[in-house]
Amino acid sequence: MQNITTLCLCFLLSCSLLSPAQQTTTQCNGSSSHYQQADQPAPSRSPKPPLMGLSTWNAYRAHINDSIIRAQADAMVAKGLVEAGYKYLNIDDGFFAGRDAAGRMLINSTKFPYGMKALADYLHSKGLKAGMYGDAGPNTCASIWENPPETGGRGAGFYNHEQQDMNLYFKEWGYDYLKVDYCGASQQALKLDEETHYTRIKNAIDATGVDDYVYNVCRWTFPGTWVTRLADSWRISPDINATYGRMVEILDMNTFLAPYMSPGHYNDMDMLEIGNGTTMTYEENKAQMSLWCVLSSPLVLGTDLNRITQQTLDIIKNHEVIAVNQDMTEQGRLISDFRHPLQVWSKKLNGKQSGERAVVLFNRTSAAATITLNFADIDLAPAVNIRDLWAHRDLGEFTGSYTATVPSHGVVMLRISGQNIPPSVYEAEYAYLHNYNHLVNCVVIPNQARAGYHAAASGKAAVSYIGGNKDNYLEFNDIYCKEEGIYPLTISYFCENTRTAILKVNEETVPTAPFHSGNASTVAIQSVYVHLKAGNNRIRIENPAGYAPDIDKISIGKKDGPLPGTPHLEAGNGQLPEGLR
Ligand code: GLA
Q1: What is the mean pLDDT of residues 359-385?
Q2: Closest ligand 1 atom, residue 141 Cα
Q3: Ligand 1 site: residues with CB under 6 angstroms?
Q4: Which residue has the higher pLDDT, 21 or 139?
Q5: Best of 55, 56, 57 to mutate for ligand 1, by most ligand atoms within 8 A of CB?
Q6: Please, what is the angle between helix 66-78 and helix 115-125, to 10°?
Q7: C-beta separation of 214 from 264 below 8 A
Q8: Whose CA is nearest to atom 4 of ligand 1?
């Protein structure tokens, strides 16, 4: 194989974009391969699908006790929720009574007269898994923020008691799940480092010898890519409440976090508010269920099951929608333009190269509207079969596109089967950003690469602030090719000043020319030949010395095909590949 550097024959700067037709042409056919994040080691435990269960917090806040929890457990069984997959009952804040002189965590014996082990045993006897709660700092959230404060949580946080507390929770009491909050840690003058403290707690769980557990990081924002290797799930937002507004805020926060999900590791959009109070409508409740499923969030009910209606049960027990959530192939992506109120979301099912999709059409406007799904936009050939997952009805065969009327604040959710066409265009907003949102002592490290709105970009989103240090890179880590060979790679970018970038294809550097698009809102392209192997390829853009250009997308052309827009090829000191001579 020729050295890759001799194959970069031509650099092209142009302000034209590829046509939509070029964007959807199949050029780099893929074969199925296990999905793996950039620099992510193979998981030591076999991956679990997103957790399904119930948490006490939304319905009860800190007003929990033994009989409430036993009654909820009984209802989970009686109402068929355990059978539907909701197996965890997670006890949230509100059971603590400080610590004794030896540092042993104490439990409020008025609320929990039989202790926490007896309660875990009861949950297990019902076929449930038992979930626990705590804080990485000295105090729990309810001891700081509830009114009146839940004083038992003062001093009951894990800080400096990590091993002692994990032995208690996992070995002595036998719990199966732990959610770790950060109120105590962030309120103190302790200046705790998030990664260090969440890792310390994880290591303490492992040191108990228990290996079948679920670990949830509750830092109320995406805390940095370290979390994707450490935790089974991690909160990405402030607390949810039972309003449509907060639901869509959380949805927007998760829009470009798909690259950080991998099988067994999920972005947690917080608990479901379906049926909790009356502020959310039937359509909004169905929307929450559909969106949480297509985005592969844990499904944690937050409703008092003693008062649950049949309509709520029908929503949360929809097995076809749940099956979408439990499929570990990927986290769904926004296909329509970012910030457009008529949204199309799509998630691949049954493997990265399969022709099956779950699609949610979501209408964020205040009136019913039609939304059209073009099958090419979800990487399918024109002929497909469609099933409606809320109507539980096969809709039949369609060609090219499907249009539905979607109620205000509501969804249509579909399962689509067709022929997969591996993409030739990869949007930068769905690339892995290695330093994304890294928090240290409650502060996000400034100037790290991030995805966001860009009016001139395809999908109305692009990635800015790449570079400045070697770790602040962008990586497309799921570029599949059926055949090894030489392919034209086109980078669509923005930068008003001249910038440089290092392009690495499967760890090998491919020379690029300086980038300059004229101004920050004009898209330019630079095309180079790259060698791609059969299977999965990684394409990285970095610049340790300064900012790289903002990236809109990359496009992979036909094997041995021409560089887009190239009037002629200049061999330089390299050789034209076979077929181009
Ligand atoms: C924080 C968390 C909530 C809940 C409360 C308990 O606000 O984000 O989910 O656990 O603490 O005090």
Answers
A1: 98
A2: 12
A3: 57, 92-93, 140-142, 181, 218, 220, 239
A4: 139
A5: 57
A6: 10
A7: no
A8: 57
Beta strands of 185-227 (E only): which ranges?
214-217
Residues ≥6 apart with Cβ < 8 Å to 307: none
Asked whether 312 and 242 are in contact (CB, 8 A), the reply is no
Q: Please measure the distance between the N-terminal and C-terminal CA atoms of the chain and give it in whole angstroms.
A: 17
- Sign of the dihedral through C-alpha 441, 443, 445, 449: positive
Paired strand residues for 107: 96
Strands (E), 496-549: 502-505, 508-510, 524-532, 535-542
Closest ligand 1 atom to residue 238 Cα is: 8
Residue 153, C-beta contacts closer than 8 angstroms, at least 6 positions apart: 93, 94, 96, 135, 139, 140, 141, 142, 143, 144
| pLDDT (mean) for 321-348 | 98
Nearest C-alpha neighbor of 476 from the set 435, 529, 430, 544: 430
Sign of CA dihedral 105, 106, 111, 112: positive
Region 526-552: what's the mean pLDDT? Answer: 97
Q: Cβ(52)–Cβ(297) under 8 Å?
A: no
Distance CA 284, CA 277 (A): 13
Please check the confidence at residue 258 and state whether its pLDDT lies above 80. Answer: yes
Classify strands 333-334 and 535-542 as parallel, antiparallel or unpaired: unpaired
Beta carbons of 565 and 531 less than 8 angstroms apart: no
Q: Is 60 exceeded by the pLDDT of residue 16?
A: no
> Ligand 1 pocket: which of 133, 181, 216 to mutate (most atoms <8 Å of CB)?
181
Ligand 1 centroid to 124 CA: how many Å? 24
Atom of ligand 1 nearest to the CA of 92: 10
Structure tokens at 263: 């099988």
Q: Report the candidate in 238, 228, 230 with the shortest Cα–Cα distance to residue 181.
A: 238
Q: Mutation test of ligand 1: which of 183, 253, 269 has the most ligand atoms closer than 8 Å to its C-beta? A: 183
Written as six digits, the tokens of 479 are 């570029």
* Active-site annotation, residues: 181, 239
Q: How far is the CA of 435 from the centre of ligand 1 (A)?
A: 26
Is the omega angle on the peptide bond into residue 422 within 30 degrees of 0, that is, cis? no
Q: What is the 181 CA–ligand 1 centroid distance (Å)?
A: 7
